[in-house]
Design goal:
It is a single chain. The chain has 279 residues and is mostly helical. The chain has two domains: 3-36; 59-275, MetI-like fold (Orthogonal Bundle), CATH 1.10.3720.10. 74% of the residues lie in helices and 0% in strands. It is built from 14 helices and no strands. It has helices at 3-36, 40-43, 58-66, 69-99, 106-116, 121-135, 142-145, 154-165, 170-177, 182-193, 195-210, 214-219, 228-238, 243-275. The longest helix is centred in the N-terminal third of the chain and has 34 residues, at 3-36. The radius of gyration is 24 Å and the shape is flat. It starts with a helix and ends with a helix. The chain crosses the membrane at residues 12-33, 77-96, 108-132, 144-164, 185-207, 243-264.
Length: 279
């Protein structure tokens, strides 16, 4: 057997393994979509029906009529918009100050920010809740939005700082000679160059916020302020036997996350790759 033939066989084996792994990963998603388009009886029929005999589109309509799922959707979209905007803006500002401006104690502050990532959520969640309750903004989206406008998060700052460090200093120096201020350099030079990293931060912020269950569970008490994560859990608890409706509701929750990932997939790979170039 020649070396060329061995190489082709190895490629075939690799592709077969990757295809098998992809099928295993996509099977739960396929099963969820398939079940959402069936009747409750058809879901559990033996032998298994892989495709619905008649597509039940009314399952999705019933999701919005049995519970105010449209309100949950609106709350989640509003929350995601403000959190993503705040995380991208404030984390990029912090990363710029930690990477492009020389000031005393910069490395110490960055070490403290990185150290905050080691704190479990359970350690800070009680004092944070007490603080927001003392202020009087619980049972609203503000406790979930405000932290995003105060730095966005240590991980986002780290990603953007690494990206900023990979940009040559010559651009800053040329701008200084032309009389540009730090804010002008940040807004007109750095932000356009860091678009892939900003997209990565935005995608991570979107996914974390859209899928967040613990935060809304702690701060929200009224049904009209619930997000889709709480709404889905409420749906599961109220309609436990209606599997087709639960699968339809789960599909509605998954769709935005899948769309965001598909749109930003190219930027996600590019941004993560480039943020790891320099340490």
């Amino acid at each position: 057997m020649t070396a060329k033939t061995k190489k082709k066989i190895q490629k075939v084996i690799i592709y077969v393994l990757l295809l098998a792994g992809s099928v295993l990963c996509l099977m739960p998603l396929f099963w969820m979509i398939r079940s959402s388009l069936m009747t409750n009886v058809e879901i559990f029929m033996v032998p298994i029906h892989w495709l619905p005999e008649k597509i039940q589109w009314q399952n999705y309509k019933e999701v919005f009529t049995t519970l105010p799922f449209l309100t949950y959707y609106a709350n989640s979209l509003k929350l995601v918009f403000f959190v993503v905007t705040g995380a991208v803006l404030t984390s990029s500002l912090c990363a710029y100050g930690l990477s492009r401006i020389d000031w005393a104690g910069r490395n110490i502050v960055f070490a403290c920010i990185m150290g905050s990532m080691m704190l479990p959520t359970a350690v800070t969640i009680i004092p944070t809740f007490l603080m927001f309750r003392r202020i009087g903004i619980t049972n609203s989206l503000l406790p979930l939005i405000i932290p995003a406008w105060l730095g966005g998060g240590a991980f986002y700052i780290f990603l953007l700082r690494q990206f900023f460090l990979s940009i040559p200093r010559d651009m800053d120096e040329a701008a200084y000679i032309d009389g540009a201020t730090h804010f002008q350099i940040y807004s007109r030079i750095m932000l356009p160059l860091t678009k892939p990293a900003l997209v990565v931060v935005g995608m991570f912020a979107f996914m974390n916020t859209w899928n967040d269950f613990l935060g809304p569970l702690i701060y929200l008490n009224s049904d009209d302020k619930y997000t889709v994560a709480l709404g889905l859990q409420l749906f599961i608890g109220s309609y436990r036997a209606e599997w087709q409706l639960m699968m339809a509701a789960a599909c509605l929750v998954v769709i935005p996350a899948v769309l965001v990932f598909m749109i930003g997939q190219r930027y996600l790979i590019e941004g993560i790759t480039m943020t790891g170039v320099k340490g």
